[in-house]
Amino acid sequence: MAAAPRILILMRHGKSAYPDNVADHDRPLARRGLREAALAGDWIRRTQPPVDAVLCSTSTRTRLTLDATGIDAPTEFSDLLYGATPAQVLHEIAGTKPDARTLLVIGHDPGIPGAATALDPQSRFAARISDKFPTSALATLTFDDNWAGIHAARTTLTAFHIPR
Fold it and tell me: Quick check: 4 pLDDT over 90?
């Protein structure tokens, strides 16, 4: 019997606030960001297998996004996801422990949407994602390889969801 496919959920952080004299890395979420991140968590629980692992940028807004989703899984915080390119996002994913079947990655534009379209550029969702990947949006992908092989895996973009 073949193993269940791996599920990758790529999420952009919730809408952030812009308080005066706060560095970009330290910006909190706006009320809308908290609400939409909670809706994203509801969608994940309703439509995806249980999340086994989370990879999250170290920025305040990504940490608060994770909290608002209500997803409770072992989490690794990565400085490299802050400002990451799509290739850097994929590099971080490749380091995921092999026992994780469903991985949630919370990061930033352009790394998160760029990683989604890099993995399945012919997807029916690719043009929409390239056009706009709003805050709190999620892209889900499946593949049958291990995380270390994400760069070369035949990956299918299965959903693009904007919680509102």
Answer: no
